[in-house]
Amino acid sequence: MSVNLELRKRLILNDVDIDASKLSSIGAIDVSYSKHDLSTAVTTLVVLNDRLELIYSHSSTINDLTTPYIPGFLAFRELEYLKKEVDLLRETKSHLMPDIWLVDGNGILHRNGFGLASHFGVACDLVTIGVSKNPYIFDCSELSKRSAKNQYKILMKTLKNVGDYFYISHPIDKTILGVGLKTTLESTNPIFVSIGHKCSLNTAIAITLKCCKYRIPEPIRFADSISRRHLI
DNA sequence: GCGACAG
DNA sequence: ATCTTGTCGC
């Protein structure tokens, strides 16, 4: 908990050294879990070039997973594994270090304004964007949760073209935390994009869109499918 | 007590 | 997250 607060002080919410028009590479990391063996998981780091082609991947098996997943505390479970993969890349293939990272989880679109993508960005000093497939629900009571879900349903119907989005604000202070973004013409459900670290929301949206051939951005799709394959 | 809640 | 199954479309 004290670690989180120390990291949070260093969070940066605007573009730092990022020129979306001349991105050379983009990275992603994903963790897949075994259903049969609760202590086993696989972490996969991928690097894609500016044409969204896979140019590097590395996977590590976790055999002693003990931390459970608790909603709102994803970073508590996954951060150490993401950090390990980045440290390894820095040691062995530093010339492949991506300009920007997509993280499977939210950035500031979070109860404490500091989700996994932000933790990861600050802890490793990387430019990160948070991407999640499901809406983050702030509300606690069943009643307000249901109304929040209904709100999302209504907002989803307003998305018509690729690149359309709706803002998601903090339920109390109303600050903008992220967007629900339509990434392909075919997809009914948006993805949820937020600032991770050292990146503005507009840049996060633009880069995420550039990465989408399908609903889920290519870097995350690659990391997800490779880590899942390693698990078998 | 049980299920739901980014993954 | 994980599992299954089926269905549609290229």
Write up what this structure looks like:
By secondary structure, the protein is of the alpha+beta class. It has one domain (2-138, 193-231): archaeoglobus fulgidus dsm 4304 fold (2-Layer Sandwich). Helices cover 32% and strands 24% of the residues. Strands 3-2-1-4-5-8-7-6 form an 8-stranded mixed beta sheet, sandwiched between helices. Strand 4, helix 3 (116-124) and strand 5 (128-132) form a beta-alpha-beta unit. The mean pLDDT is 91. It binds 2 DNA strands through strand 1 and helix 2.
Helices and strands in order:
Elements: H1 2-8, E1 25-33, E2 41-49, E3 54-62, H2 74-92, E4 100-104, H3 116-124, E5 128-132, H4 142-156, E6 165-169, E7 176-181, E8 191-197, H5 201-210, H6 218-231
Parallel strand pairs: 1-4, 4-5
Antiparallel strand pairs: 1-2, 2-3, 5-8, 6-7, 7-8
The structure holds 2 DNA strands.
Largest sheet: 8 strands, mixed
Mean pLDDT comes to: 91
Helix content: 25-40%
Number of domains: 1
| Class by SSE composition | alpha+beta
What would you say the CATH architecture is? Answer: 2-Layer Sandwich
> How many individual β-strands?
8
Give the termini distance in whole angstroms.
34 Å
CATH superfamily: archaeoglobus fulgidus dsm 4304 superfamily
Number of helices: 6
CATH class categorisation: Alpha Beta
Unreliably modeled segments = none
CATH topology: archaeoglobus fulgidus dsm 4304 fold
Numbering strands along the chain, what is their spatial order in the largest sheet?
Answer: 3-2-1-4-5-8-7-6
Which geometry do the CA atoms define?
globular
Strand content range: 15-25%
- Order of secondary-structure elements: HEEEHEHEHEEEHH
